[in-house]
């Protein structure tokens, strides 16, 4: 049994930033980063050009490696393991990992993130960062004067499509139903955009390209007929799923599936359990906002531990 002041579950910008702040506060945190997913979604991202401090941009894995090294410099311990059980007991939370390590922690920071939903097609993963993306804010700039497609029919898809018309010469929105799910106001704005076209009752059947995306095969959901769509960019906007399986039965989950916290803080409904990053944020989902959220969680955990010490004194 290993006793810790703070255990951080998950890595990525939120987890590593929380580790930096907690380590600098002399809390000696351990980061259970994941055996496969260490570093989070940015490990699958190529150029990151909107993270402050990198005027020439930075590769996603390089940014995560720098954050990890910075956390370790101040005394954080990073463990490449997976949490299989979290037992919530204020003052002595219990954690079990896949490799059989047992921790008790006075404070736990949940930075488990979320995962973009995928189409599940061959080539989708292979061309990630080479024409296929899940984030218009992150990657739209790279598609100046190109023809691209967006898949989805909700508010997020419409928002991404209209945002991308700032850069692309043409954006085609592909939705498998005749009716969009987005609000009427969002639909009206999108239909008034001259660069945006709609391909309804349609779905992406194939993604083409070897080193880069070259086009799509689109299938009609009404007739089954297929056609080719020559695009160099594909943005998948069919939602995301927060990674809450570990604690969804013990903590309050909002109606949208994301973990609930108290206002602008990182406090969950269980004392000593804090949360940061995309697991609590369905809106912004940026590396910089996740990093800021990690700072908040570490600061809240530090104050919580100080209050425990005061009570014990």
From TrEMBL:
It catalyses: [thioredoxin]-dithiol + NADP(+) = [thioredoxin]-disulfide + NADPH + H(+). It comes from the Bacteria. Residues 5-294 form the FAD/NAD(P)-binding domain. Its EC number is 1.8.1.9. Transmembrane segments: none annotated. It is an enzyme of class 1 (oxidoreductase). The keyword Translocase does not apply. The keyword Disulfide bond applies. Binds 1 FAD per subunit. Keywords: Disulfide bond, FAD, Flavoprotein, NADP, Oxidoreductase, Redox-active center. Gene3D superfamilies: FAD/NAD(P)-binding domain. Homodimer. Belongs to the class-II pyridine nucleotide-disulfide oxidoreductase family. This is Thioredoxin reductase. It comes from Brevibacterium pityocampae.
């Amino acid at each position: 049994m290993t006793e810790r002041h703070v255990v951080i579950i998950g890595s990525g910008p939120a987890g590593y930033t929380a580790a930096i702040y907690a380590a600098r506060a002399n809390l000696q945190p351990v980061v259970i980063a994941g055996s496969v997913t260490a570093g989070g979604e940015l490990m699958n991202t190529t150029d990151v050009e909107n993270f402050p401090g990198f005027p020439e941009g930075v590769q996603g894995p390089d940014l995560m490696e720098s954050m990890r090294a910075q956390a370790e410099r101040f005394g954080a311990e990073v463990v490449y393991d997976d949490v299989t059980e979290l037992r919530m007991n204020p003052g002595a939370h219990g954690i079990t990992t896949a490799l059989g390590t047992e921790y008790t922690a006075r404070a736990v920071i949940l930075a488990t993130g979320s995962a973009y939903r995928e189409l599940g097609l061959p080539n989708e993963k292979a061309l990630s960062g080479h024409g296929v993306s899940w984030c218009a804010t992150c990657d739209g700039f790279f598609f100046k004067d190109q023809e691209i497609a967006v898949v989805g029919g909700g508010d997020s898809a419409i928002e991404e499509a209209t945002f991308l018309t700032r850069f692309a010469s043409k954006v085609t929105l592909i939705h498998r139903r005749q009716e969009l799910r987005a609000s009427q106001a969002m639909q009206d704005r999108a239909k008034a955009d001259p660069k945006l076209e709609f391909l309804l009752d349609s779905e992406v059947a194939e993604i083409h390209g070897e080193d880069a995306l070259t086009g799509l095969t689109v299938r009609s959901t009404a007739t089954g007929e297929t056609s080719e769509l020559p695009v160099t960019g594909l943005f998948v906007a069919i939602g995301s799923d927060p990674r809450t399986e570990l604690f969804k039965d013990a903590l309050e989950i909002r109606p949208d599936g994301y973990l609930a916290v108290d206002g602008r803080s990182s406090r969950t409904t269980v004392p000593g359990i804090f949360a940061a990053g995309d697991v609590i944020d369905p809106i912004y989902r940026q590396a910089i906002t996740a990093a800021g959220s990690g700072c908040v969680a570490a600061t809240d955990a530090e104050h919580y531990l100080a209050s425990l010490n005061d009570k014990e004194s």
